[in-house]
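ingest -> validate -> predict -> emit
validate: passed (alphabet ok, no gaps, 454 aa)
predict: started
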Amino acid sequence: MEFHPDLTVGVINGLGWLYLLMFFLNLGWTVQSFKKDGHFEWCFGWEHIPKASVWALYTVGLMIFAFVHLTVRGNADTFLLRLPLWFKLWVDSIIANPISYFIVSMVLFGLMIWLRNWWVEPTRAWILFNVSVLFLAFSMTDYDFRQIVGKPDNVPIVGMLFLVGFFTWLYFYEAGKNDRLIAEGLPVKKKELTEQVLVWPDLVYTEMICMILVAALLIVWGVALPAPLEEPASAVKTPNPSKAPWYFLGLQEMLVYFDPWMAGVVLPSIILVGLMAVPYIDFNKAGNGYYTFNQRKFAVITFLFGFLPLWVAMIVLGTFIRGPNWNMFGLYEYWDVHKLEVLNNINLSDWFWLDTLRLPLPRPNGDDPFLVQAMVILKREWLGLLLVVLYLFAIPPLLARTFMRGFFVRMGFIRFMVLANLILFMAALPLKMILRWTFNLKYIVAIPEWFFNI
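emit:
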């Protein structure tokens, strides 16, 4: 069923301006490549060919793309430069599946760490940037993708993703340079900078210029992209899906796997307390005041794991993939409110008593004394409670004797136990997500009588 035209002349012309911008950016890159990158000794029978010639050909291609898009005035249905259907179906099959989405995000995170010295090289990083922009441009030829990404609420999130990518690259780029200097026994870059500047006029002038530029940007943004003001809120007419602001979408996604008291109170509180506790449990004094990775591998990987796969990826999931009825949709999939997802979630106690023992689930009688009801609940949930206790109290000593023995020796008992429990609480989210997706496990401990579910 065709709900809309995929392309319009206005969209095609708008993409032309994007390609024109990319043309000018890559023209500058071609010039600097000609000055710095040297020549190919031999290339397809030609000798002494500048390496910048590759960028020159790509830049010419962008100019042709821009010209073709900007000169379209006729029927947009016949326009050929669009994503093929097979590619959109393939991407949707991966993105709309929570298991494959999580696997892809984890694989990308692992490759980012493993290949950090490869992809941070400026030319390769610029190639990745161009690929991401071209992917975005070609994806804009799909109506459903355009409806999601082009919402005024979501445009800043797209920009945020590029900023996160840039600053992640900047960290690894600077850290790689310092790690090479440290390996050669030379002082790191940060410690070589001893020049001091005055607050007035140097710092104040810089801040004033930044303030003017940001204010101008916000004014242009506000004029070109009006705020999506809607009608007053009404309890009888709620949006579907009803989403929190983008910075809370990670918490809203956690509500799929945890009870509100856990996702909205306990885990955020532990995150805040953990961030405050980091300076007191950190025993590694290296890396203070300068970029480094090799000297702080554990701290960097742990932080980036909590920030990228468990926070930024959750924001992307909640913004672009969670649709009506909080179902998952592909990037190019129509948000159909009638889409149904069969969710046969089961609690651990239900599986243990009903499916394994083939016995009725113990339920407390509301007329019994509190102690009797508590004993019935503990009888029903003993397996889940035991697993939670083992997870929080048995794994830290096990880690102290095996994989993290060096940490335990240098940190001491108290600091190590705080660190280990912070890591376990952070790992609870991906573990619960995996259990939900693979075994349809809803709660490990389900005590609705006390509003206590884990």
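The first strand starts at residue 39 and ends at 43.
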